[in-house]
Design brief:
Largest sheet: none
Shape: globular
Number of strands: 0
Order of helices and strands: HHHH
Radius of gyration: 15 Å
Strand content: under 5%
Oligomer: single chain
Structural class: mainly alpha
Amino acid sequence: MEYSLIKSIHLTCVVLTFLSFSLRYYWMLKSDPLLGAKLVRILPHFIDTILLISAIVLSLRLHQYPFVDHWLTAKVIALLVYIYFGTMALKRGKTFRQRALFGILAYLSFFYIVVAALSKSAWAWLL
């Protein structure tokens, strides 16, 4: 597969992941029953799987690897943090206040990932 196609797929999935989380977070804040719909529960996993596969293919294609390239290591760690915060915001937070706070933290970690990717720096917030 051509590099530009893989990158386009990856960037499209980044946008879809952001939109998906934002919509589900909004529904959580509004206690909307759509949050429990089957498609809403399944589709984000599909998008995130394509996102992860495209990230791995790009990493291999560009010969940039976590634990070798510090900015990529930071992105992987931030991704795990984002997943934790997102899960707490959408499902596991015990109170509405906790869920709202974890949602904001998920957004911050998501934006860190984007800035780290664009700057190719683990110190993205400081640049």
